[in-house]
Design brief:
24% of the residues lie in helices and 13% in strands. It has 499 residues and is of the alpha/beta class. It has one domain: TIM Barrel (Alpha-Beta Barrel).
């Protein structure tokens, strides 16, 4: 029986998205060259980090710059609220793999609007699929590089997998199964009013399946020619009659217009409880049929409620499971957290009944925004920063530590580890029926380090038993190679930029 943990939402090559400069740091190469200070892209004090400052504003963090120190100090990043810096360098990912990571979904990511705001590398455009192609090729190149360092083709621990059988074989060998995916606003050139058609999406799915892609988001932040996206963040603005109520568009950045309708019956409260009135188009339905025909994973996150309902209606007819790879839950949220991007209890039941998988996004929100879920045999605790003291300095604010240096990390006591009370708390994820189950994962992301201590992945039916794995990733450790004798910081596993 193979045990380990899974990361279902990882943007390892986001440095190649967003025009190639906005996201700083490479996931490969010597640390000194891959992860230098971010000043060339983000400016002194991080004040030129347009995308990072904007996204942190959207999610309630301090938007005014950041410490720029990468290698060798790492006093600015990676950290829990850093959204434009690399946190999946291959050395760090290897440590996670050594600690039990056995499955990772590597999603090529981009956002054309944000890429248009940022400085771009020479020859680069904001185009979604340009960024996708570069990131997919980079993953293939990294696999080859790990192979070369491990003795030859097929010998490395980083293995791109294309079938369930291949994934199980790689996991059973103790290696890391990497699933390639796409998460952008306009997959396959699907801008509203563009040239996309049912025939073109069928052709595109076939081409990207051949390229190794197995996981896809039909929707992200914007409505596209495939359907309606969830009304869930400040990039979106209501363009219907509800806009007469100043509360509806208060704080909106006005980037993506959406025609909304009342969604309070579903429990929504965000911006007076509005939801997107758009569902899937005929082209969107054709995309879903193509994804199912090729046996690819459909991720229902970021969909409008109508789009998600239509998707579930369709897949239920074919008994085809879907995934929600990084969502939250309406039933335990309050106020603005009760938005269309979260799952209702009924949606969760439909996904589960169809054999699908639901994985919560790590940072659900503040304690006054999200309740602790305590159900029969299941506890989902908060995983936000706890504000532990840092060498005599108290943390500031509820969202994380004030200390920027990894040299100040406080190691959890043995008792904390045993009880699962270190870092951000403990939580369990329900298993998919008859398949992959991610049972328990601890994450102390107050300082940018993620500690995965007791998650189980089992290819069998039933609720797995919590089990402690290798020591956490929050220790400092000298490494061999180009950075021999230096100290590597602990880091998170996922370079999430546009969750």
């Amino acid at each position: 029986m193979t045990k380990g943990f899974a990361d279902l939402h990882n943007h390892q090559f986001a440095n190649l998205g967003f025009g190639g400069l906005a996201f700083w740091g490479s996931p490969a190469g010597p640390v000194a060259a891959a992860l230098p200070w971010c000043t060339p892209a983000h400016g002194p004090g991080g004040l030129g980090d347009v995308i990072g400052n904007l996204i942190k504003t959207m999610y309630g963090s301090t938007p005014f710059g950041h410490h720029v120190g990468g290698n060798p100090e790492f006093d600015g990043w990676p950290r829990w609220d850093s959204v434009t810096h690399q946190s999946v360098h291959i050395d760090w990912l290897q440590r996670a793999w050594e600690g039990g990571l056995r499955l990772m979904v590597m999603l090529a990511v981009n956002n054309e609007h944000l890429a248009g705001l940022a400085n771009r590398a020479p020859g680069r455009s904001p185009d979604d699929m340009e960024a996708v192609d570069l990131q997919l090729q980079a993953a293939v190149s990294l696999e080859a590089a790990v192979d070369d360092a491990s003795g030859g083709p097929g010998m490395g621990w980083y293995r791109i997998v294309r079938t369930p059988a291949e994934a199980r074989r790689v996991i059973d060998q103790g290696k890391l199964a990497v699933v390639l995916g796409i998460e952008v606003d306009y997959p396959f050139q699907s801008k509203p009013g563009g040239p996309v058609s049912e025939a073109s999406v069928r052709d595109a799915v076939g081409r990207y399946h051949t390229a190794g892609v197995r996981h896809l988001f039909p929707l992200h932040f914007a409505d596209n020619a495939l359907g309606g996206a969830g009304f869930q963040n400040a990039l979106e603005i209501a363009v219907d009659g509800s806009a007469a109520d100043p509360r509806v568009n208060f704080g909106s950045l006005g980037v993506y217009g959406m025609t909304t309708e009342d969604g309070t019956a579903s429990g929504y409260e965000y911006r007076t409880g509005r939801r997107n009135s758009a569902g899937l188009s005929d082209v969107g339905l054709a995309l879903l049929h193509s994804l199912m025909a090729y046996g690819m994973v459909i991720d229902v996150d970021h969909m409008s409620q109508r789009s998600r309902s239509q998707t579930l209606d369709l897949v239920e007819r074919y008994q085809y499971p879907v995934v929600s790879g990084h969502s939250g839950f309406i039933d335990i949220c309050h106020g603005a957290k009760r938005h269309e991007g979260q799952l209702t209890g009924a949606e969760i039941e439909r996904i589960y009944s169809g054999g699908g998988l639901v994985a919560p996004i790590i940072r659900q929100g503040d304690r006054d925004e999200v309740d602790t879920w305590r159900g029969a045999g299941t506890v989902i605790e908060h995983v936000q920063g706890t504000g532990l003291p840092v060498r005599g300095r108290e943390s500031r604010g509820r969202r994380g530590r004030a200390g920027h240096g990894f040299q100040w990390l406080r190691r959890a006591s043995a008792a904390q580890v045993r009880t699962g009370r270190c870092g951000g708390g403990r939580w369990r994820i329900g298993a998919r029926r008859g398949g992959l189950s991610v049972h328990r994962r601890l994450d102390g992301q107050a300082d940018g380090s993620q500690r995965h201590r007791s998650a189980d992945i089992r290819h069998q039916r039933g609720q797995p038993r919590a089990r402690r794995h290798a020591p956490g990733l929050d220790r400092r450790r000298a490494v061999a190679g180009s950075d021999r004798g230096r100290t590597r910081p602990a880091t998170g596993l996922s370079g999430r930029l546009c969750d």
